[in-house]
Write the structure tokens for this entry.
Amino acid sequence: MLRSPVSRAFVVAGCCLAAITPFFWWGSPSGHDFEFHMFSWMEVLGQWKLGIAYPRWAALAYWGYGEARCLFYPPASWTLGAALGAALPWTMVPGAYCWIALTLAGAAMYRLAREWLPIADALFAAAFYAVNPYHLLIVYWRSACAELLAAALLPLLLLCLLQIFLPKAEPGHRPTLGLSLVLAAAWLTNVPAAVMIYYATAALALVLFATGAAREFAHKRSWGPKIWGPLSRTLVWTGLAMLLGAGLASFYLLPAIYEQRWINISQVL
């Protein structure tokens, strides 16, 4: 029954749909950030209809006073929300957004778990991660939509690092490129999550490096180029992935960093 990839996808997506079934009877919960995200999606869709592909100024924010929201807030969440608003009634958009974010998180965890676990156990891990209590807290109380979308990146981050440091075969450049894409997606999804992901990447890389070095030394009882060389290259690949990830997201990062001088950011914080 679970041998088909489609059936496994239905299992994960079904669990995530069950998590948001209260939306069908009681509507969308208005959490801490609900109005902020909902108004942002409506604003972006309105500007798309005017031909502005990448909005920067949210003219209708704060009841017409406006805000440089689209410049400083990463584009992934408001792009997805506006795209859903273009296809669905606005009453359905929050539920559809949460379902997509939870399903992506479950799919990412399934990909990570399948490296070591059989299909049934990997599906359990995926479903449990997707609808874990903290994610439900975000959905029903905090409405931190960008943070919820970033949850799909954490299993992929660990997967890419393990492929770099503990490869089943010659790693090559594919895991490094995959890690850079995950890191770029983090910047484009949620800045606090991206900062934590970068710190976590550096910390995990050092832990995996030390673990690999200790294991090799225990087997070989000596240090040599055949041990030190491959291990040091893994750190170099990780560092390059971190730089490349920031570079891929530079179209958002550089204007946001440079144009902070034009606003009074302390009043926001």
User: Anything to note?
Assistant: The mean pLDDT is 89. Residues 1-145 form one domain. Residues 202 and 238 are 8 Å apart (CA to CA). The chain has two domains: 1-145, 152-269.
